[in-house]
Amino acid sequence: MFYWILLFPLLFFGANLEVLLPTRASLTPIYLSGFSNEEMREVLKTDLNRSGLAAVVPNEEHLDESFQGPFDVTLWRKEKIPFCLSAKVVQNRLEVTAFNVEQGTTKKYPAIPLERQAIHRLADAIQKDLFGMEGISSLKLIYTIRTKNHSKGLGWLSEVWVCDADGKNPIQVTRENSYCLCPAFLPGSATEFFYVSEKTGQSKIYRASLANPKGELMVDLRGNQALASMKGSKMAFITDVAGRPDLFIQSLDAAGRMVGKARQLFSSPRATQASPTFSPDGKKIAFVSDKDGPPRIYVLDVTDAKSTKKPQPQLLTKKNRENTSPAWSPDGTKLAYSAKVDDVRQIWIYDFLTGEETPLTSGPENKENPSWAPDSFHLVYNTESEEHCDLYLMHLNHGDPIHIGKGRFASWQQK
After folding, report:
1. Do 265 and 300 contact (CB within 8 A), yes or no?
2. What pLDDT score does 26 carry?
3. pLDDT on residue 311
4. How far apart are CA 227 and CA 6, in angstroms?
5. Given this model, what pLDDT does residue 398 score?
6. Burial of 271 (0-12, 13-18, 19+ CB in 10 A)
7. Residues contacting 46, CB < 8 A, separation 6+
8. What's the pTM value of the predicted model, to 2 decimals?
9. Angstrom distances, CA of residue 376 to CA of 222, 260, 395, 396, 412
10. Which fold has domain 3-22+137-412?
11. Which end of the chain has less neighbouring CB within 10 Å, N or C?
């Protein structure tokens, strides 16, 4: 059984991290003035810098002083700074006014409390107004953290956690004293999620919520089930119910209960399937198979249960000998995946518009499990080594990965 199947927890090995991504677009300068609360100022500054669109420029005394009078558009045009934010704290609430120098317009935002989540929401609102793109700062990440199982000697435990998009406020969700992996929020929900757990001795798919993390079985089949992906009321997953790890699909009702029987979508003699991911319209699934040799990524049409025509998978990734853990971007234009290059796993991007396969990362440590944010512009992935699994955030404008904490198998909260 290949290590990438992940029906059972296995260890990965690697070295130090070094990730590079060529700059694809310049960042727009933005000025932030008058913020007396340094902690909250840093939250807003970090959110704006991590947007992949803006770069907060250093403060200068004469520029800060300019906010004491009428806003001087000529000054800011001379400085070549197109956006300015003037902030002040009044009775422990933050008031922010945004100036669009290019358009000569202003917008005053409603006062907000001085707390992190409110600042994250403000950053998203500012980004939407100034750049026309939805922000991700107010979203949560759900993921797992693996720890040594000291009470039973050798082995590992893994529990589900959530944190803010910047890695702050990590909270443990499950306490199964078992091995959980691959959590993801249910479609259309910001609190309910599904995940895989081995608490009964086999890998099974469960449903839970942040408020009630006690898992309820979602797919009641023999054998192991893992590596699930959902689109609407459909769940694709890998199960060995027929003897080998094959690709199945299951219809679910609004409560997450099975409707009808699970249906096998693809199987191949002496081959193993893994890691399905739906296209945004739910009409296709990308998945991993070793049916032609090493594991590579294929795309398969999702046929109706009544269809008599068996769909044939089409090979998608042709570079590199091993490609795994695909993730389809929400806008449908890209597929992120992990590819083995010179014996090290890197994150690559397949562009559906051009058919090109492009490396996103480099360096000596294995990178796995990319997951797209709803904006199809940011993604999170994890590194893998014998002792450490760490989460990194990236956007597609330039190549500085941001370490946001420990963990693996991260997935984004949906808007």
Report:
1. yes
2. 84
3. 81
4. 8
5. 66
6. middle
7. 166
8. 0.90
9. 36, 33, 9, 9, 11
10. Neuraminidase (2.120.10)
11. N
